[in-house]
Amino acid sequence: MAILGKIRERSLFLIIVIALALFSFVIGDVFTRGGFGSEANSIGEINGENVGREEFAQMVEQQKSMSGGRGTQMQNVNGAWENLVRQKIYKAQLEKSGVTVGEKDVWDEILKQSWVKDGAQFKNAAGLFDEDMFKEHIATLNDAKDDDANSRQAWLSWLDYERNIKNNLELRTYNNLVSAGLGATFKEGERYYMANNTKLDLEYVYVPYTYIADSAVAVTDSEIEQYVRSHPNDYKAEASRDISFVRFDIKASAEDQAAIKGEVEKIINDREEYSSAAKGNVNVKGLSDTDNVEDFFRNNASDIPLDNNFYTKVRVSPILKDTVFKLNVGDVYGPYKEGNYFKVTKLVAVKQMPDSVKARHILIPFLGTTNDPSITQTEAQAKTTADSLLTIVKNDKSRFADLAKTLSSDTGSGAKGGDLDWFVYQTMVPEFRDFTFENKVGEIGIVKSQFGFHIIDIQDQKNMQKNVKLATFAREIVASDETESIAYQKAETFASALTDGKDIEELAKEEGLTVQPAVGLKAMDERVSNLSNQRQMITWAFNSESNVNDIKRFDTEGGYVVAKLTGKHNKGLSVGAAKASLRTKLLNEKKSNLIKEQMKADNLQEIAKSFNTNVQSSKAVSLGSPILPGIGRAEEVVSVLVYLKENKLYSGIDTKNGVFAAKILKKDSPAALENYAGAVSTVKNVNKTKGAKVYSVLKKFADIEDNRATFY
Q: What is the C-alpha separation between 201 and 666, in angstroms, rounded?
């Protein structure tokens, strides 16, 4: 009570302290984020244009909707970002080109969409598309946007659709501009034809870079760094992190498996169990003695659901096929282990059934079974129609095909008189399947499915054979709490030892564990090596407070991971994995210069002598067949020589692997053509492949600031 009294006496003082603390927290956050709401709401910038957090969140939701919810959160984030970058880059290029996609362009594009021009709700009494009716539809969406949440969402969805149409139109417009610029003229076609069909008789000397030993030239790290600085767009590197980690998987022990097997075995026979409701022991039916497997599965939680399908021998599990077909109905097999489950299986029923059926049907849908707005009849009305049709076809089967063509909503089979051809057991929905496989040829009847009412005529059946219906009760093999606790303690002990300075490789070796590296992780990654989604680990690695050699334990699907941050690499220019190839490139450039210095002679014989080699020759070489003996394909050389003159010495021609000196002895040009349309078409196709690379080039030179990792 004395303490409470002192707190009351100093309440004003405490309020002031708390207020100052909150103020410093807010101000600190403002300064660390660069201002009031500046970076806090910015996902990034694309060529100086800010991307707001709310705008981007909407794009992520759109991406999620387009993927049907199949993608992960990070896949949706990355997909939305890539789409946004593409849109912004293309829009900027269009503006530079003086091209604007206006409202009328967007409206005209919307009117071309099939759901608009073919929509029944937008057609007039004459059955023609009415633009005013479509405008009225949009106006109605706008007027109702404040009525409720659904109406608001409908209006926002329309605005998103309109925006997407504009974005796609901008992309297509820019690509069309690029394609137009990458066409081919008649003269280009002629030049291409002549160059590819001109044949050259050559004499040449080829000196590979290997002629000069690597030890004779040197490339320093500073030269590599200078090359990188002079080609910045080729060596931009994102920030990255390196991690080493050890897994502690939670796996069911032998004791866990034995206990689970015992649980499964226990449900086979009747047993006594205590019932809190009855306040005493009650008799519980086992799988073997139950007369109703549906009730049994309702009262006993199996880890796989009851399957009411029939199976032929080739379709049952390989573990069962040589056993269950020898059992009597009611017999139980097991327990047995299959995959990650212990199971027991009861033979519920045996039936002779075909392996395939030929049938035809007439489908009568009703409201709720289709998205077709023309379907307005209720289920009761559809049933009345189906019953009437059944009476007609039972009295006169010859009318079935014509009725299917005119009345069936399954227009695919309807066009063939309702014929579905041959199908196997697992093809059709259960109601349709059961009727056609469990009844005889010639039977006609009605079944109701998710698609409506089917009037079915069984026309033929093949390969009658024994089928079985099985009730399989299963328990998944999972680790016990005790086993999971042991794995947790091992991971904690391992992490503690690393924090105390133990080497991860040595400690893992002592414990019989494996250290796995994950190198070059990017800020927006979500996978770490062979682990499942580990966004939490990426976030930790990129946290500004995480330092090299930091240790952290993570919960993962099926276990734990102890990770060590082994490397932090900042954004900027970097050679990285390309360092070795870049060193080779610069070495070859230096070797090329030395070879060219030595090639300064008046004829090929002297050049060959200075390199202790021979003059080689080749006839009828062309761009269409640029093969040189002992060298292979040499497009680089032939593409240069084809435009040069005869009987002149050309030396110092660089190629990927060496330097050429060559002389054209004879140049045989092809006869001119009356029409070079074929060559023009080829050049156009070649140019199109170049046009496909336009976006990657534009993106390479764009100024993009990506802050997504701060929010996702």
A: 5
Please name the residue that has the structure tokens 């599965």: 297
Residues in the chain: 712
The pair of structure tokens assigned to 565 is 């941050």
Do residues 629 and 649 touch, judged by C-beta distance below 8 A? Answer: no
Structure tokens at 227: 């090359």
φ, ψ at 339 (rounded to 5°) = 60, -125
- Of 126, 159, 130, give the one whose Cα is nearest residue 142: 159
For the segment 290-326, what is each residue's pLDDT rounded down to a tens digit? 989 999 999 898 999 999 999 998 889 999 988 999 9
270-284, 306-320, 400-414, 440-454, range with the lowest pLDDT:
270-284
Tell if the pTM clears 0.70, that is, is over it: no
Kindly report whether the peptide bond that precedes residue 305 is cis, defined as omega within 30 degrees of 0.
no
pLDDT in tens, 434-493: 999 999 999 999 999 999 999 999 999 999 999 999 999 999 999 999 999 999 999 999
> What's the one-letter identity of residue 667?
K
Nearest to 464 by CA among 357, 377, 543, 370: 357
Q: Which residues fall within 8 angstroms of residue 464, CB to CB, at 6 or more apart?
A: 352, 353, 354
- Tokens representing 151 are 């109406």
Please, are residues 432 and 456 in contact by the beta-carbon 8 Å criterion?
yes
Whole-angstrom Cα distance, residue 573 to residue 69?
37
Distance CA 561, CA 133 (A): 61
Q: How far is CA 209 from CA 135, 212, 596, 655, in A?
A: 71, 6, 11, 10
**CA 689: distance to chain centroid?**
24
| Cα-Cα-Cα-Cα dihedral sign, residues 242, 244, 248, 251 | positive
Write out the two tokens for 27: 């101000």
> Please, are residues 452 and 369 in contact by the beta-carbon 8 Å criterion?
yes
How crowded is residue 4: how many other Cβ atoms within 10 Å of its Cβ? 8
Other beta carbons within 10 angstroms of residue 84's beta carbon come to 20
Residue 515: its H or E element: strand 515-522
In 289-414 the beta strands, taken as DSSP E runs, fall at: 310-311, 332-338, 341-353, 356-364
DSSP state at residue 669? P
Structure-token match 């005889």, residue found: 440
Helices and strands counted in the chain (H then E): 24, 25
Q: Kindly tell me the burial class for residue 376, based on how many C-beta atoms sit within 10 Å of its own C-beta (0-12, 13-18, 19 or more).
A: exposed
Strand order in the sheet with 199-208: 616-621, 199-208, 658-668, 649-654
Question: How far, in Å, CA of 246 to CA of 497, rounded?
Answer: 13
Contact between 237 and 228 under an 8 Å Cβ cutoff? The reply is no
Contact residues for 82 (Cβ-Cβ < 8 A; gap 6+): none
Q: DSSP for 253-297?
A: -HHHHHHHHHHHHHTSS-EEEEETTTTEEEEE--TTT-S-HHHHH
Does residue 115 or residue 547 have the better pLDDT?
Answer: 547
Instruction: Write the CB contacts of 230 (distance below 8 Å, at least 6 apart in sequence).
Output: none
User: Residue 33 CA to chain centroid, in angstroms?
Assistant: 34
Cβ neighbour number for residue 435 with a 10 Å cutoff: 21
Cα→Cα distances 348→198, 466, 469, 503, 550, Å: 80, 13, 5, 60, 59
Cα–Cα distance for residue pair 626/151, rounded to 1 Å: 67
Report the 10 Å Cβ neighbour count for 369. 19
